[in-house]
């Protein structure tokens, strides 16, 4: 049985004609950079996200950096972010000379523990970056209330939660700025690198657009230090096609998650937040015998992944001599199972039976 963590080929084959036509159209036009499809995709994503401003860029990491630059964060400013996450968030924080302040995560949702955030806020705190991990949103009501009380900014890292909602509002559109990634394995993925920044502020959107374009509004007139970060036209063209299927993809992922929920034994299944939908970028279980289970499943040709095996405060580049017990425990227990839009009942049954027979 050929089980994949993510079946990008199968997904492509279902919409092959549309994707091929979109790519061929760009090739025929030869407008490989800033072709019309880039703005068309940005407009389509804006409409999908209830009208927020959308500025596309080169990747999700660039999106985070540009967002921080647009908010005019200065070297020495402190940024609060979760310690159980991918390194991109802390990477751009450090790159800009900002001071990352780690906070532990909730043991059930794996998102930033809002109960620990406010005690870390001081005069130097300028931003909070909740990462909507694995596909569901952090507690945005609490975070936005804190941000308003202390006059600090909120940057949502929605790289894993595109299409998800906190209550009735899309992830990435609640804070001052939201960012996302179109890395191929994401729920809305392109065939290379890509990203986007979202904001409800027209003024901030103009600043973001300028930063992403070498700091210029008008060609050869550089008003501030910027970067070169853009989504190429081919990626935009195929993303415009795939955006039409995003809700269908979300339903299929939730169907997989529901199957796992109903069949798995002897492991802790994902806990779903009452205030957030879950788009299941990852289906992540917990088990105290994680490494043994991973090896056991490998022997049955079932792929798994560990997101993330080393907490950020234990990484050499960002080491801090502090204790974050939940993240440290999660790094030893979390295991993500195959989940994608092309999974079959036969595959799911085999995976569940294999996990349940592990003793």
Which percent range describes the beta-strand content?
5-15%
Q: Give the total of beta strands.
A: 13
Order of helices and strands: HHHEHEHEEHEEEEEHEEHHEHHEH
Question: What is the topology, as strand order, of the major beta sheet?
Answer: 1-9-8-5-4-2-3
User: What is the quaternary state of this protein?
Assistant: single chain
Number of helices: 12
Helix proportion range: 25-40%
**Largest beta-sheet characterization:** 7 strands, mixed
Mean pLDDT figure: 98
Measured between the Cα atoms of the first and last residue, the distance is 22 Å
Task: Report Rg.
Answer: 20 Å
Shape: globular
Please mark out the parts with pLDDT under 50 across 5 or more consecutive residues, or reply none.
Answer: none
Structural class: alpha/beta
């Amino acid at each position: 049985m050929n089980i994949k963590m993510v079946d990008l080929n199968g997904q492509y084959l279902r919409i092959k004609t549309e994707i091929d036509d979109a790519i061929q159209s760009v090739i025929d036009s030869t407008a490989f950079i800033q072709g019309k499809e880039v703005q068309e995709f940005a407009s389509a994503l804006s409409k999908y996200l209830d009208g927020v401003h959308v500025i596309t860029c080169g990747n999700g990491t660039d999106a985070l950096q540009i967002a921080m630059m647009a908010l005019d964060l200065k070297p020495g400013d402190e940024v609060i972010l979760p310690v159980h996450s991918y390194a991109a968030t802390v990477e751009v924080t450090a790159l800009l000379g900002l001071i990352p302040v780690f906070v532990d995560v909730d043991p059930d949702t794996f998102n930033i523990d809002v109960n620990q955030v406010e005690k870390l806020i001081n005069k130097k705190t300028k931003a909070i970056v909740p990462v909507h991990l694995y596909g569901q949103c952090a507690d945005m009501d609490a975070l936005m209330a804190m941000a308003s009380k202390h006059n600090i900014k909120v940057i949502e890292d929605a790289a894993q939660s595109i299409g998800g909602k906190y209550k009735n509002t899309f992830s990435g559109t609640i804070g001052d700025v939201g960012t996302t990634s179109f890395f191929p394995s994401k729920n809305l993925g392109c065939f290379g690198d890509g990203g986007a920044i979202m904001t409800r502020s027209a003024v901030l959107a103009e600043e973001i657009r300028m930063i992403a374009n070498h700091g210029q509004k008008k060609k050869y007139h550089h008003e501030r230090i910027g970067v070169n970060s853009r989504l190429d036209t081919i990626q935009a063209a195929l993303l415009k096609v795939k955006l039409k299927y995003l809700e269908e993809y979300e339903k299929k992922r939730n169907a997989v998650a529901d199957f796992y929920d109903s069949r798995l034994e002897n492991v802790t299944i994902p806990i779903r937040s009452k205030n957030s939908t879950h788009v299941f970028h990852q289906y992540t279980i917990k088990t105290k015998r994680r490494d043994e289970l991973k090896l056991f499943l490998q022997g049955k040709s079932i792929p798994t992944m560990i997101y993330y095996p080393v907490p950020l405060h234990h990484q050499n580049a960002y080491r801090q001599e502090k204790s974050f017990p939940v993240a440290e425990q999660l790094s030893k227990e979390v295991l993500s199972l195959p989940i994608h839009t092309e999974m079959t009942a036969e595959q799911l049954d085999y995976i569940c039976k294999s996990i349940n027979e592990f003793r």
